[in-house]
Design a protein that fits this description.
This protein is mainly β. The protein folds into 2 domains: about 5-50, no CATH class; about 75-144, OB fold (Dihydrolipoamide Acetyltransferase, E2P), CATH 2.40.50.100. Helix content is about 0%, strand content about 50%. The protein has no helices and 13 strands. The protein starts with a strand and ends with a strand.
Length: about 140
Amino acid sequence: MKNYNFTIDGEAFTARIVEHNEDKVVVDLNGTSYEVELAAEEPAAFAAASSPAAPVSRRPVKAPSTPSVPAGSGSVTAPIPGVVKQIQVAVGDKVTEDTVVIVLEAMKMENQIPAAVAGTVNKIAVALGDSVLDGQLLIQIEES
């Protein structure tokens, strides 16, 4: 079987699928075997391994909900690809322009993302740990 080499936070991993069927996959990760159950509702996705090898996010990268958002709108979008580390508001919160509403981590740096308008948060489109793409909607603010 084919080996897959990848790096997470500077640590190198080699993975090899040893066995697979409709219900499970056996993966050898750096010499340790893990039995991974396949989720019935998402056949291509893997359920959590019986003992994780590293703190790896198993959430898929979400496609941007809109390719671009007009400037000056109440939409807070990701300026760069990254991982959601903090959500500093909740639906219903009132924010002012330049209030930090979310923190993204990209290339081991935390990036504080501010609101572009004052208003009320009416939608949070991401969750902690989500991987996001450049331009993806993060938070929607209804201007006041």
